[in-house]
Amino acid sequence: MVNLAEPLLGGLYDTLNGAFGSQAAWLLGHLLLAAVGSGLIALARNWSEIVNGAELRRSHATDALLFCIVTGFQVQMYHNTMAWPLFSSILIAGTFTLSLGWCVKVLN
User: Which distant-in-sequence residues (6+ apart) come within 8 Å of 80 by Cβ?
Assistant: First the structure.
């Protein structure tokens, strides 16, 4: 059988394989890929309703872009300079950026 989940999920697939065995990891990995794919398709189909219902404006897009830039810079620093695992780097960088953004908006 073709295994698309292993190269796409990387370390998560290895974890699933170690925890549940190769057949269950194959099944769970492909179910996860199918769920993510169907979620992205639903997002694309309902994009205009999502934007209008959430009242997204230019300031929201600017905040999201700034979040991605600051988080991406931190991920590169943590992952490449400090040799932390990628998932941990993303989690810590995202948490720090959200906390910093909250401090700037609420406490300022």
Answer: none
Q: Which two tokens stand for residue 49?
A: 């309703």
Report residue 88 as tokens: 């941990």
| Averages of pLDDT over each 10 residues, the chain, 108 residues | 88 92 93 95 90 81 92 94 91 94 87
Assess if residue 85 is contained within a domain. yes
Is-above-0.70 flag for pTM? no
Cβ contacts of residue 50 below 8 Å, gap of 6+? Answer: 43, 56
- 30-64: b (≥16 Cβ within 10 Å) or e: bebeeeeeeeeeeeeeeeeeeeeeeeeeeeeeeee
Please name the residue that has the structure tokens 């990891």.
25
The residue segments making up the domain with residue 26 are 5-47
Count of structural domains, the chain? 2
